[in-house]
Amino acid sequence: MKFTLQSTDKNSKARAGELVTAHGTIQTPIFMPVGTAGSVKGVHQHELKQDIQAQIILGNTYHLYLRPGLDVIQAAGGLHKFNGWDKPILTDSGGYQVYSLTEVRKIKEEGVTFRSHIDGSKHLFTPENVMDTQRIIGADIIMAFDECTPYPCDYRYAKRSLDMTHRWLKRCCDRFDNTDPLYGYEQTLFPIVQGSVYRDLREKSAETIASFGRDGNAIGGLSVGEPAEEMYAMTEVVNAILPFDKPRYLMGVGTPINILENIALGIDMFDCVMPTRNARNGMLFTRNGIINIKNKKWEADFSPIDPDSDLHTDLFYSKAYLRHLIHSKELLGAQIATLHNLHFYLWLVQEARTKILEGTFYEWKNKMVKQLGERL
Amino acid sequence: MKFTLQSTDKNSKARAGELVTAHGTIQTPIFMPVGTAGSVKGVHQHELKQDIQAQIILGNTYHLYLRPGLDVIQAAGGLHKFNGWDKPILTDSGGYQVYSLTEVRKIKEEGVTFRSHIDGSKHLFTPENVMDTQRIIGADIIMAFDECTPYPCDYRYAKRSLDMTHRWLKRCCDRFDNTDPLYGYEQTLFPIVQGSVYRDLREKSAETIASFGRDGNAIGGLSVGEPAEEMYAMTEVVNAILPFDKPRYLMGVGTPINILENIALGIDMFDCVMPTRNARNGMLFTRNGIINIKNKKWEADFSPIDPDSDLHTDLFYSKAYLRHLIHSKELLGAQIATLHNLHFYLWLVQEARTKILEGTFYEWKNKMVKQLGERL
């Protein structure tokens, strides 16, 4: 994997770059749609590629491991072959899901035992077997197995957890470096900075993570409930330490404003379930802020969903029709709203990139943040 | 509306025709995908048009009346404008839904009172207001308000109900003929033959319906649980009486074999929720019979969903991936399976039409029925 910085903003830390993977080039900053179980909910692969112009999607190791299971994915020749998405894929390590989705779990030095949210069966994730699992899934970028601490999290717990996450990282790297890709193309491992909202822990973690000298680095444990200001403060602390010439991935963030502010702080990669999950409940992100399409005010508004957009579905369907579909729990409502939100997120980061390359990012970002004016 | 018979099969009663409506021409025999609430579940309008090549879709008066409601549809300028489907639409009269979906209902000479399945609110459907409602929805073909009797149904009930349905038809025609279309284009009213599985009642009903001299006629109250042989027998009895030169619509039918057998008996138009509803549970219709894609046997079958198809999604996605999506209740699973089934149904009637025009229908139909060999 090769990362090239093409331009850095003079009034902020924003950067535009290019990340070359075995399945194609990603232009950064980038947003990665979440395809939990190997499918971005409600969106066909050709829509992702042609309508949304997604450059990379996410898969969840936890979900894919449980269903369809590693035997099936390996027999298919990896996730790309299984779901037909031939562009880059990133898989998380399951670290987040075993804490957020499973009810019975036990965290030990060895790893985490948990029960499947599907059938209650018992499983163990360790740094080593999570690397093996991600070798089998075959994503271009794979993530270290970490503990993602909740918010709020007391200092002592955060510190102890962080130390374990660092020891786990060593085990992840050892396993990863001593195994080969299964399908003939290169995979890259990103370690994850943790440390909750404690500046000193974040600094220590960033230094540790940087010392591993991997090809890219991630920041985890944010967007878990903390105020946006704390999130930005942590990103700033960490980015001052993480290597400048390597891609930085802020996991699970966030709203359009969160994304713009973090781009300004030097983040290159984002993922979040918000545009897809909230779409299914009728929350639309637009360049003029957030719309709840279920509101009565859209009942007889027959204007296009988003006249500012160049997406066919945004121009073809009306707000009133989409409102009706969401109210009626019609599948098509989820499909249309998801396409809209993902298209908007991809437009936002593409626009940010253009402004960085033009040298006008900072001014544009401040204007957009005002215009978005979101209140969630 | 103008119907032209283009060809009739010499070894059966099958016919190929063309039905010209204000929103375009329908080539018969045709299958009409069901878009209950103004949307064919899981399918974009452009997919219906370009991928499935649907020529006409159905809407349900009962559902549309309750949600989004007539005010919204009228403000939009009718259902075509509301949902963006600019080809022909047919609406049923709500007669079936008020019996099958509502729990509290009372059938009187005046009409049917029922409670909404959405919010329990009380409503009255009469032959007159159902015509007015369908004027507002603005479908090209609208249906008379009838009572659809269940199966089994005792003779006395079926007879009494039929007489009322006939009196209601008179009221429907009076109201329809004394009102104008709201949106400037012609609408056509089809009456419905009832009579359960009683030959004499079906004959009597067909004669009554024919005497109204409308531009097309429908057969209702079949595919409600009776054996296929009874369904075919009733179609045969009725079609011997219904005018030869007008389109015949068999409501709510059915499996691929049901459709082929009824085409052979002289039916021109079909609708059924089976290809869409069953798709969502993983039942796929193929030219070699029915597949339950959830079966273990497809778990690692990475061959295309349907190699015989020319639909992109049938060739792009594998059986194993679709199985995974349906098991995981992913929206994309419903989308892919629905596209597949509708494409297959449309292919089937298009193929039947080609064979009728070629003069080889009867032989082909018998071969196909064997090949389909369906057991539901």
TrEMBL record, chains A, B:
Reactions the enzyme catalyzes: 7-aminomethyl-7-carbaguanine + guanosine(34) in tRNA = 7-aminomethyl-7-carbaguanosine(34) in tRNA + guanine
Alphabetized HAMAP family for the sequence: Q_tRNA_Tgt
Residues the entry annotates as binding substrate: D92, S93, G94, G95, Y96, D146, Q194, G221
Function according to Swiss-Prot or TrEMBL: Catalyzes the base-exchange of a guanine (G) residue with the queuine precursor 7-aminomethyl-7-deazaguanine (PreQ1) at position 34 (anticodon wobble position) in tRNAs with GU(N) anticodons (tRNA-Asp, -Asn, -His and -Tyr). Catalysis occurs through a double-displacement mechanism. The nucleophile active site attacks the C1' of nucleotide 34 to detach the guanine base from the RNA, forming a covalent enzyme-RNA intermediate. The proton acceptor active site deprotonates the incoming PreQ1, allowing a nucleophilic attack on the C1' of the ribose to form the product.
Gene: tgt
Coiled coil: none
Record's protein name: Queuine tRNA-ribosyltransferase
Active site: D92 (proton acceptor), D271 (nucleophile)
Pathway: tRNA modification; tRNA-queuosine biosynthesis
Keywords tagged on the record: Glycosyltransferase, Queuosine biosynthesis, Transferase, tRNA processing
A Pfam family: TGT
Organism of this sequence: Olivibacter oleidegradans
Domain tRNA-guanine(15) transglycosylase-like span(s) in chain numbering: 12-372
InterPro entries per record: ArchSynthase1/Queuine_TRR, TGT, TGT-like_sf, tRNA_ribo_trans-like
Subunit-level organization: Homodimer. Within each dimer, one monomer is responsible for RNA recognition and catalysis, while the other monomer binds to the replacement base PreQ1.
Gene3D superfamilies cross-referenced by the UniProt entry: Queuine tRNA-ribosyltransferase-like
